[in-house]
Amino acid sequence: PSAAAAPTAEAPATPQASSVVVPNNLVGQIASGAAERLRHALDQVMAGARVLADLPAVASWASGVARDPVARVRITDAAWKMLLTFGLGVLAEIAVYHLLRVPRRRLDAMAPAPGGRWNWLRRVPVVAGRLLLDLLPVLGFALVAYPMVEAVRPLPTTELVLLTINNAYVLCRAIMMASRMLLSPASAHLRLVRMPDETAAYFTRWLRRIVGLSVFGYALAEASLQFGVPWAVHDGIIRLIMLLVSLMLVIVVVQKRQVVAGLLRAPALPPGEEPSGSRAALRTLRNRLAEIWHVVVILWLLALWGVWALEVPDGFSRLLRGTGATLLILGVAKGLDVGLRQLLDRAMALPAGLAARYPGLELRATRYGPLLRSLVSGVLTVAALLLLLEAWGIGAFAWFTQGRLGSRILGALGSIGVSALVAILVWEVANSAIARQLTKASREGQAARSARVRTLLPMMRTALMIVILIFLVLNVLSEIGVNVAPLIAGASVVGVAIGFGSQTLVKDVVTGLFLLLEDAVAVGDSVTLGTPPQTGVVERLSIRSIRLRAVDGSVHIIPFSAVTSVTNMTRDFAFAMLEFSLSYGEDTDRVAEVLRQIAKEMRAEARWSGAIRDDLDVMGVDRLLETGVVLRARLKTEPSQRFPVGREMNRRIQARFEELGIVIPSPWRKAATEEDQMHATGASA
């Protein structure tokens, strides 16, 4: 048709600026344009499929080509010239290959036998020489095939087809020769990669399939354009070939997943061996990677094909950068995790002198060690996740700019973390100070002070914990945006109501606090208190009551509000009180001297030397009774030894009085004496 008959093309409408903002990242572009790109790709594939499936159209195209003398000449010219050039090139390659049989055998004989850790270095020169010998036949093919293309004087389209096929063959042969240098399936002594013969043959076989399909498939798709094949069919063939290549790689991954998992999995430990912290973490990582490696690789292969098929701008480079950054971030994060854990373990291992100087510090280090390790792992995990999102173009760092939600969350977490750290420091410093004072008092023999500290410690710890928790909870609520003013007001009202309704409880607490501050009673004291009075040993002091253990084992729980007076029998010193009834005929001075002698004998014994503080104090005749006189004395003892010393004195006094004939009068003896006197008077009458 003439140019005048051609319809006038309308000027395309000027595209208006789109109001849709396309994110400048890989994931955003995929998400925003995936539907359109997928539709376009499917349209191309379906167009190619419709062309291939439309047999009448294909037959019509073939019939048209057969009737068209120009097309028939092009196809015939391309066919016989391709067979000629390709066939001569292959014959040249075979001839060169057979000519080099003797050099190959000699070179193979020079290769060292397999074995040894570094023996592969000795095989490198031999393998390099073998590679050169293997490339010479391919060079012979090129030296014959390429000049023949010029010699046969093909048509321009035929020349392009011949060059494309020859290039594809040379590329395939070069790739297979390079793979033979590493795998060498037929000669184990020339193999640089240590693997069994079956594995080398397996990978060589699949590599040949993948390389042949991808290279020759692409070459045939490009050559088909010279014969009028539509572009839709061309693009569909390319996408189909790449999908088949991806599926082949997936098949290889699935078939070899157990073999690779066995290489990745940590070896079994000898019986009884326990790995250290870093080794255990590395073993866990290896075992986890062995379980999921094939899933990760398959997803990556499909993502690679999807990026290519959807024609994402700069998709390959971004995918490769994202993959490399992911491996780098995960490796660095794992290394930091292991290193920081080891550093924490060393910091928690306290020297013996420091542990002795600060009692309980080692226990606290053991208590907070797992918490610190978990905190470090959590922070590293969050940081690694943010870096991964940034590496894949999500823009995670933008979430933490001024005024964004991430910035507010980060500030709140920082404030809460500082508050928790201060609370823990105050709590542990207070506990450590109390424990040091308790240990110091016990070491210096200050029993009263030690008992007092043991008494005050639970109450102080409880009060301190309540105060710290209140401040910490209020700060946390304030940081997360909760208005704490109504809570404080409500707590004040509730506190006033509870105060009015529990006056007795308040009285118990206040009275107990003053009793403890005045050091009136402590754990381990023997006291008499309460209404009615109860006597026993103090076992425990709570915030509102005192627990006594009586001599017979009974337990008395007495609230502090019922304690109006305290009789403490174990403070500073005590006196063992001694009272004896003597007949009027006994010499009291002689008896007093006997008592002093008994006390001296007791003080001379090791059992009682530490219990008795001073000599016996004879106070004299205390009372005059009908049966005799009462002699009173006292012996100064340690606070807790008054009753044992008194009982031992009574035992010895009774034995000494029997020995010396000192009479202790009794009511029945007096009655018997009066009856004898009455009988004597009656007899005389």
From TrEMBL:
Keyword Transmembrane helix part of the UniProt annotation: yes
Residue spans crossing the bilayer: 78-100, 127-148, 210-231, 237-255, 292-310, 374-400, 412-434, 455-474, 480-500
UniProt-annotated location(s): Cell membrane
Domain Moderate conductance mechanosensitive channel YbiO-like transmembrane helix span(s) in chain numbering: 323-399
Listed GO CC annotations: plasma membrane
Annotated ranges, domain Mechanosensitive ion channel transmembrane helices 2/3: 464-503
Location of the Mechanosensitive ion channel MscS domain: 504-571
Family statement drawn from the similarity comment of this UniProt entry: Belongs to the MscS (TC 1.A.23) family.
The name this protein goes by in its record: Mechanosensitive ion channel protein MscS
Provenance organism: Roseomonas mucosa
